[in-house]
Structure formats: structure tokens, C-alpha cells
Amino acid sequence: MKTYTIVAGVNGAGKSSLTGVLRTEITNLGKIVDVDKMIVKCGGNVIEGGKKSIELIDACLEKEICFTQETTLSGHRILATVKKAIEKGYYIRLYYVGLNTVEESLARIENRVKKGGHNIPDSDVKRRFGKRFEDLTTILQYCDEATFYDNENGFVAVAEYKNGEILQVGNLKPEWLRELMEYMS
Q: How far apart are CA 45 and CA 113, in angstroms?
């Protein structure tokens, strides 16, 4: 089955780390599209890998092969990709990593930068964090399945999306999940 897997969450949530975990558990992730790994440094300038990632996604869709995309779900491109994948008969699977506060997101990014990783402007992080549930629910309606993870201390599955609603899994109910369920009701 052709599968389009979306690994989503706000900046700093742990999307790349979750993708690493999923690689050991799932066999049909296909080509991994991680724009963070496509960033090119040229002299003192950083060139974003957005164009390269779009080309890679388009190639996967054209060849009708399984692929996985890491995304914050912000912007219009992700919705267009989902709709195109559905037209081509893809099964849409979402894994979402949640965080409770924008401060937690900023602190994780700061830690990543200290270790040599890429930075994201605070204004972008705050804007995306403020719209995270709106962006998520826009995409969620097109998903065949979704699993929600909390990443406070490692990835813990806390909810699933079934029949148009989010159902809690297990006993852990982080604040962001409460807020999301309230937002959707």
C-alpha cells in the first residue's frame, strides 16, 4: 500500500528523533524527507532546503512510492501535498509530537543550537506554536490514522485519532492534549 507518513509537531518537539524511533518499528516509511537535513551552508550563509524537499516530495508522488515528511504543518504546501497524495490513492498516516509550552519549544531549539544544530527565529516559533492546533486539525481531517505522542521524557503514545475524534490512550494526559481535545470539541 502506498503510504504518506507525516511526522509533525512544533519546532523543537522531536520530529527527527521520533522518525528515528519509527524507522526501527515501521517498514513502509519509504523515502524520508527532512528539510532540516537538506540545509546547505554556503560560506557564512545558510540556504534552506525547502526547494529540494519539494522536489523530492513531488518525485515520490510521481513515482507513487512511500515517503515520510517531517513538518510543523504550517504553510499551505502541506495541505496541497496531502490532497495530491489522496488523489493518487495514498494512505495518509500522521504521527504528532506535542509540547506543553512555547518556552519548552524555544528551550529545546536553544539546546539543539548549542549542539551544532539549526536555529529557528523566536518569532517563527511563537507564531507556529500559536497556530499549532488550527494547522493540525486542518490536516487531521484528511488522515486515515493518527497517533499523538508526548515527548516530555521520551516518546509516549497518549492518543489516537479515530472516527473523527481524538481518543486518549493510557493514563498520561499532558496539558497540550487537554488543550487540543478542548479545541476540537
A: 16
How far does the chain reach from its first CA to its final CA, in angstroms? 32
**Which amino acid is located at 61 in the chain?**
L
pTM: 0.91
Cα separations in angstroms, 12 against 39, 123, 162: 16, 14, 27
Answer yes or no: is pLDDT of 23 > 90: yes
Domains of the chain: total: 1
Among residues 56, 51, 70, the alpha carbon closest in space to that of 11 is found at 70
Query: 76: domain CATH number?
Result: 3.40.50.300
Give the strand pairing for 165-168 and 156-162.
Answer: antiparallel
Look at residue 44 and tell me whether its pLDDT is greater than 90: no
Which structural domain, as residue segments, surrounds residue 156?
3-184
